[in-house]
Every structure is written in C-alpha cells, then in structure tokens.
TrEMBL record, chain A:
NCBIfam families: Xnuc_lig_assoc. InterPro entries: MBL, RibonucZ/Hydroxyglut_hydro, Xnuc_lig_assoc. GO terms for molecular function: exonuclease activity; ligase activity; RNA endonuclease activity. PANTHER family: BLL1145 PROTEIN, CLEAVAGE AND POLYADENYLATION SPECIFICITY FACTOR FAMILY MEMBER. The lineage of its organism: Bacteria, Pseudomonadati, Pseudomonadota, Gammaproteobacteria, Chromatiales. Its EC number is 3.1.-.-. The keyword Nuclease applies. Keywords: Exonuclease, Hydrolase, Ligase, Nuclease. This is Ligase-associated DNA damage response exonuclease. SUPFAM superfamilies: Metallo-hydrolase/oxidoreductase.
UniProtKB/TrEMBL annotation, chain B:
InterPro entries: ATP-dep_DNA_ligase (IPR050191), ATP_dep_DNA_lig_pp_1105_fam (IPR026333), DNA_ligase_ATP-dep_C (IPR012309), DNA_ligase_ATP-dep_cent (IPR012310), DNA_ligase_ATP-dep_CS (IPR016059), DNA_ligase_ATP-dep_N (IPR012308), DNA_ligase_N_sf (IPR036599), NA-bd_OB-fold (IPR012340). The keyword Oxidoreductase does not apply. It comes from Spiribacter salilacus. It catalyses: ATP + (deoxyribonucleotide)n-3'-hydroxyl + 5'-phospho-(deoxyribonucleotide)m = (deoxyribonucleotide)n+m + AMP + diphosphate. This is DNA ligase (ATP).
Amino acid sequence: MTIDALIEPSAHGLYCPAGDFYIDPWRPVERAVVTHAHADHARTGSQHYWAAVDGESLLRHRLGQDISMTPLDYGETVHFGPISVSLHPAGHVLGSAQVRVSDGNRVWVVSGDYKRDPDPTCQPFEPVACDTFITEATFALPAYRWPPMQEVINELMQWWQANAQAGRSSVLLCYALGKAQRVLASLPAPLPGPVYLHGAVAPLTTLYREAGVAMAPAEPVSQATKEEDFSTSLIIAPPSAAGTPWLQRFADPSTAFASGWMRIRGNRRRRGHDRGFVISDHVDWPTLLQTIQQTGAEQVYTTHGRAEELVRYLREQGLNAAPFATRYGEEDE
Amino acid sequence: MRTFVELIAQLDRARGTNDKVHCLVSYFRAAPAADAAWAVYFLSGRRIKRLLGPAQLKEWLAQASELPLWLVEETHAHVGDLAETVALLLDPKPNNSPALSEGLSHWVDTRVLGLRDLDDTNRQQAVVHAWQALDAWSRFVYTKLLTGALRIGVSQTLVERALAEATEQPRAVIAHRLMGQWEPTPDFFSSLFEARSAEEMASQPYPFFLAHPIKTDPAAELEAINDWQIEWKWDGIRAQLLCRQGARHLWSRGEQMIDTAFPELLEAAQHLPPGTVFDGEILAWRDGVMPFAALQRRLGRKQVSAKLRAETPVRLLIYDLLELHGQDLRSAPLSERRVQLEALLKDCELPLALSPLASAKSWKALHQLRDESRSRGVEGLMLKRKDSVYGTGRPRGPWWKWKVEPLTIDAVLVYAAPGRGRRANLYTDYSFAVPDGDQWVPIAKAYSGLTDKEIRRLDRWIRAHTIQRYGPVRAVEPEQVFELAFEGIAPSNRHKSGLALRFPRIVRWREDIAVTDADTLAQAKALLND
C-alpha cells in the first residue's frame, strides 16, 4: 500500500487515514461510515455512524435504536478534516450506498455491495466517476449473469400456482433484508393465494413499507387464523429456516431458494430444495465489468468474493488492480 | 432433441425417485423409437467413444466466449461441470432453434458421431455454431453428448423401472435386456416391448446376485453355522463365464464383456458342455494370489500380449453354477448347485478352478479363520445360506460378505481440488501425504468419508491455508491429519511413495493429533509385511 492511499485495508476495516474514519468496520471504531444494513457491513459498537437516510430505520433496527448516527441524503457532502465524503445509491437494498471519498485532487469510491438490475425497493445504482474504485466481487466469474428479473418472477409464479393447485404450500427461502422485500414488490397481481412472512422477515418488511416501498400485501405467519392451512400460500422465510420444525406447520411444503448461487446446478442440487431461483442483489459479471468501465477508474481494488480472478482479468485488460483483504461476504446471499 | 432436453431439465428438477421415474415413463411412451433408444443408452450410463477431449472443448469455449483460457478453466473448476460451463458462459438464447425439432438420434448421428468425418477446423466450426444457436439447457445436453456420457443423477435402476412401466414387461426382463451389448437402434427399443424370446438368453449373462456387508458379529445374527456355506472373499474381478450355442463369453459385474482381456479363460472353457454358466472371480495368480493392481494391468485390453499373459497369469475361481445343459439353475438351492458344480469341475484344469470352501465348527473358530484373510490374500469371508437361490439385487439375508477390518494410516492433507456435480465449487478431492525425512510424499487420494458439514468446514480451511495454486488444484499447509482406511497395500513403481493403496477413504478427521503424530513413509511401508 502506498503512503498516500485515500483508503486502505486495516485490522478494523477499510480505513481513510487522512480523514481518520472507517468504512464498514468489522470492529468497533470511533467513526464509521456504513454502506448498508447487512450484518457483514454494519456492525455494532462504533461510537458514531454515518449512513444514507433511506436506510436509517433498517440500521437502527439492526444496531439498536439508540446508536449515534448522522443520516445523509444521497449526494450530500460531509467533511472529515481535509476529506470530503458523500454517499451515492448502490441499488443493493433500501438505503444502500457507495462511499465517495475525495481529498480535492483524487476521488476514491467504495462500492459496498451493489447491483445494476432494476429493483423497485431502492434507488438504482448511480455510476460515480473516480480514480480508484473499490468493488465487491461476490459473483465475479463469467458464469454468473442474471436472467431478467421478469423471467425469474414468471417462473416463481408458475411454481407457486402449481403448488397452490396441488394443495402444497410454497416456501421461498431468501435473505430477510432486501431480497424478501424485492420479491414481494415484484409479485404481479392477482396472486394465487396469501403471502405470509417468517418472524425474521416481517419487521424488516414493515420498515420498508414505512419507507414508502409498495409491496404485495403480506402478514406474519404468527398472525394467520387457526383455519389457515397455508395450502395456497407463499411463505417467505430466511435460509436458516430450512429443515427446521418451523416448516412443519405448512401443508406438504415445496421449498425454493432465491439466490445468485442458484445459477449453478451443483449449488441447486446440494441445497436439496425443489427449486432454485436466480435472484441476486449483487452485480453479475457483465455489469461488474460495465460498472468498472463507467467509473473511469484506472485503479481497482477488489474486496470479498472471487477477488483473485477479477484482479487477474482486470490486469490483463490493462487496469491497475489488486485485492483487498476484508471480512465482508461472511453472511452473503 | 427438444423433448429430450425437456426431459433432462425435468429430471434435474425432479425430487425423489418416483418423480424421476414418472418423467422417464412419459418420455419413453411418447418418444420415437430411434430417439428413445439413444435416451436409454445414455441415461443407463452407457457412453460413446469420446470424440473431443475437455481441453479442446475448453479452448473452443474460450474463443467463442472471448474469455481468456485460464478464466474458462477457473470457471469450470467453480461450476464443476464442463457442459454446464459451456451453457453458462455463452450468450443466452431462446429455445427456438429450428435444429431442436430434429430428433435425438438425428443429433447423435449428424452432430455428434458425424464429427468423426470432419477435420479439426470444421469440427470446431460445427460445434461452436451449434452452441451459439442453442438455449442453455440444449447447449448443456449437447455438450454432455459430445463428451460421451450423460451423467445427470439417473441410475440404470431408475431407467429399468421406467422402462418396465412403459413397456409393461417384468422388471427383471428389462434388466436382462439392458445388460451386455446392444446397439441403440429403433429395433432394439421396440424389442424391449416384446415378450421374451428363447435365443435372447444366449449371449446374455444373468444379473449378478450380490452380498450385503455384515457389520455385526455373525454369531449373533446368523444362528446355526451349519446352515451356511463359507467361502473366501477374493479380491479380484467378479465375472460370469458363459458357454452357450458354441460361443463363450466372459462378463464382468460392471456389465462389460471382457473376452479380449482374458483369452486364456475362454480357451480353457472350450471343453465345457454347451449351456453352462459359471459365476466366479478372476484373479492374477502366481504362487498364490497377486495384488489387485497386477490384475488391473489386464483390464480393458483389446489384446493381451504373450508377455503380459506371462507376467500376470490369471485364473477363474468358480463358486457358483447358474446354468447347466441349458437349464437355469438359479432357483435351485445353493447346496444343490454346489454339488453339481463340484461334479462338473472334478477334472477341470487350470486356469479354471473350483473356489474352495472354508469350514469351521463354530462361529468362534470362523473368527480365527477370518483373521488369516490378509495373509491368504483375501478380503475376508463370504457367508451364503445353503438353501439360498441365486436371486437378484442385494437383499439382506441370503448372502453376506464379512470383510476383515481395513488397514489404516494417519496421513496429512497436502492438495485439494474442487469436486464435480453436487460437490461443485467445494474442495472435496483430497490428496494425502506422509512424511519421509523432511519431505512430504503423496500416498493416497480420497474423496469420501467426511460429512457435508466437515466438507464445508474443510473447504473454508483449504481456501484460507492455500500455499500455492496449480490451476484448480491447491497445495495447502500440511497441518490437517486424517485417518485413512484401505483394503490392501501393494508395492508400486508408478507412485512416488512406492506404494499403492486399494480403496482408500477417510475414516475421520484427526483434529485431536498433531502433524508430528502422522504416520511416516517407513511406517506405511511396514504394512506391506503384515
């Protein structure tokens, strides 16, 4: 690492020495700029947080209502000594942000997690011109390209419809923050039956509704009537619910998993679910390359995921690229 | 081709065997015989001679996808399946290619086998052109066919069940018809629907009757020892020798005709009466049984040189008589079959021989006899009920194999490679080494024995402790000790360690001991003399 790096990896997280603050630190620090509310990026214990206002309620839900926090509008600038910082939409989940860091001469951008596919639950990703781009690489292999969301939602509706006709409940396992709400917001009326939410999904969905995100009606499973046998229902639950007794209340459940990993047959088969839907809140290979190009960055650092392969590929394309060791991605999709 | 591709996609999605059988039955009922014949061929695990190697396909894929070859290789290692890698790396297409209306057999004839007549340039052009016109699933199936085999989690048993249902023929008849050699022609498929013919039997072996392993003490489980015929469990190739209508054939349990690999056995069978079928074990034998590795040199040969015949002489030790004078004896009790077998082989000459019986007065005495197994070069004992018929499958009860405890060593993980299929993008193919002075000498590869949970944990450890990468293979820090079990050990000049282990597998992850406690090469070599 050169001495004048605007951002460098450290034992606590990505660090800006000139501004003395951290981005998505995994240990408690004094000043933490947080890209989004997923647990591997937003961790408890820091003295003060800066994050996008759209995600404030999610962050407080995750980290505690009483955290000390400065909510920022997208594009609003704050100063850390000589360094100016602004947040820009990352399109990952509600309130997710890229962090633009500048010392007046150079611009570095930390992507956080991001995607380019349309998502009705959050502001779309906005390319930010920069000299150095620090990007996630969760799905940075060319096998990962996302089919159009509409196509996947059609498949999902067919699966649900067929289950409902056969008197089977449809259990969709997906990440509780972001993915669940994105699916819920994408379901076209009329629905084959009611939608119910797992206890880990329901409160987050309420926060999304309070933030003004329009989604299909859904209720917590705990509030279903005694007569409900769930035989025409779609139940949205986190992956950790798979194989637990919680599933036993549903009629002959058909389970499906929604994740970018479902692109690979081996992953689908290993999970042992009836279906795998390719829905990801991360960039796929083509849009990752497209984004790097759009930023105009000459230097690219990669964080979690297939960092090594991406670095080698970018170098062959004439870019200056290197991996950053981080602890992100430990709780992924 | 479209209906076949749809079948494969349905099978991939199907959960549970009944669901799969249901998909297969619908396909077999509706598909033209020419296509269905090829479907049976590939789905039952048969393969055509591979025309294109994976290296070549990957090169073409790299060109067609405009990706560097190393990235295609990395992606292949991650995806765990070459055909799927092809399907995923090329641009998505709708499944409306006119070529998809051509049947499966037409595809195989023109676009797979037809490649034989083309030079490399034209082959590449034909393959890449087909790839680019197809949707992902069709591309996947087509590339599977190019690589010769379609392994997609359908077993021969499932195909048999589905065919039995579709043809309304007994399952055993279908099983019998799928054994051995046949060509995937429309006539073959149609003939599956016909009632059984007499001459059909002539070239076909019987389905092998298999023994269940016994894990507990037989004294507790099997009652009177006198009810049991006791044989040595040979470590060779299980085979049926057929002498019918002037022809003689040798079939392995893998349903392969192995006539050409063991010509001396067929020569020796010339003197047997027509209409005879034996079940026995082929062994390499010189002053006693030789290690399995010696026998392996004979396998898969189209021709066996006089030199090889002399170096690894073989014999067939016969332990069962399934047919005599053209009469199927399988429903006669074993004791009766044995009497007839002994009478028939009374004057027989090597390399055919009667497999001798072992005997013991009590289970306790038999325990002691079994302890001699390793020094006798056998794997243990076979226990067969004297009144047992020669059945099908592997039921519990009539026949048991009682193997000696395997040998074990504690070895250290040194390399890992990603698995395939269900184990794609997990490091599951392990190489183990033992120390020899300050060097690590690889001694075995093992793929099985860990739980899914352990595999995932070890995968994470491997990724975090890689010291070097060779393509998809990672060299890791020599820190993790595993107990490996194996059935036998033999000297080998093909391996750096000078040792070849038979059927190595992982017994447990020895996190309780340090690397310094692992067995040394000298200790492993000492097992040779045990």
